[in-house]
Amino acid sequence: MTSPVIANPTIRPPAPPEAARDATSRNAGMTQRTRIFRTGYRGLGIGLAALSALAMAACSQDRVVQTGSIYPYDYRDRHPIVLSDKPHHLDIFMRGSRLDDRQTEDLDSFVAKYRKEGKGRISVQVPRSEAGAGRTLDSLRARLRDAGIPANAYSVSHYEPTQSGLAAPIRLSFRYMAAQVEGPCGLWPQDLGISDPGFNMRNEPYWNHGCATQSNVAAQIADPVDLVRGRTPGAVDPVRRSANIQNLREGNDPSTNYRQDGRSGISDVGN
Questions:
Q1: Tell me: the pLDDT tens digits for 65-90?
Q2: What gap in Å lies between CA 88 and CA 118, rounded to an integer?
Q3: What φ, ψ does residue 155 adopt, rounded to 5°?
Q4: The domain 87-176 is classified under which CATH number: 3.30.1330.60, 3.30.930.10, 2.60.40.1930, 3.40.50.261?
Q5: Mean pLDDT over all residues of the chain?
Q6: Domain residue spans of the chain
Q7: Which of 9, 43, 101, 233 has the highest local Cβ count within 10 Å?
Q8: pLDDT in tens, 106-163
Q9: How far from chain centre, in Å, is Cα 105?
């Protein structure tokens, strides 16, 4: 007797061909839509990133973030001493029919400086319509001639006074080489308060620091060429050198003691 065949509930019968094709088409459509959605999101992200970069670029044109120093730290680099041509002036005022003693001394000092440091010709500017200007100019010419300044070493021109009623002098000037700071002092490009946190955090000296000191040093230099090179050593004093060597051999202090009591002259000091 043949036993009946019982269907296994865990095994499904194969689907017909039409159903398999429908499922395959359905899966393909879902995969294509997913791919389209992913591609769309990726394009949207790229577009947002580009817009953000443009916005940041637009902001950077108006505001620049500085993280490092914008000028030299050393004050000698910020305010260097340079050699340049500067004008030297002297104003001669009309006082009587000739030069007085005070202005004669001023003119002699002006001529001495011109002989030592002057460049080019002396410029003499005479005010127009000024009473006594002609007589003062004649006295000035005579004084220059006596000092050895020929007529071709200076030029005479006229100018109009800017304000009537004020004393208008005869202006003499020439150019000479002098030491000075390259730029002007008194500049404050940074706020020393709290508005510039980057500058405060760097703990750097402010721009104007050291400019006045450099200006004072430049003004006290007698010969600007000393800033370029040293001077040639002078002759050695053999007498003074021998005395110092002898003191060192005997164990004595070779330095000189200058007495201020007035009982010894300079020639007796150190001998």
A1: 444 456 788 888 999 999 999 999 99
A2: 9
A3: -120, 145
A4: 3.30.1330.60
A5: 78
A6: 87-176
A7: 43
A8: 999 999 999 999 999 999 999 987 888 889 999 999 999 999 999 999 999 999 988 8
A9: 38
What distance in Å separates the CA atoms of residue 252 and residue 254, rounded to the nearest whole number? Answer: 6
Contact 120, 154 (CB under 8 A): no
Structure tokens at 255: 């330095």
| Cα(33)–Cα(29) distance, integer angstroms | 6
Which residue type, as a one-letter code, is found at position 21? R
C-alpha span between 133 and 123 (Å, rounded) = 16
Q: Which amino acid is at 65?
A: V
Instruction: Burial-class residue 104 by CB neighbours within 10 Å (0-12, 13-18, 19+).
Output: middle
Rounded to whole angstroms, how far apart are CA atoms 90 and 122?
11
Q: For residues 238, 241, 246 and 251, what is the CA-based torsion angle, rounded to 10 degrees?
A: 180
What does the chain come to in residues? 271
Lookup: tokens for 179: 């030491």
Pick the more confident residue, 264 or 163: 163
Q: Alpha helix (H) ranges present in the chain?
A: 17-62, 75-78, 101-117, 133-146, 197-202, 211-219, 238-249
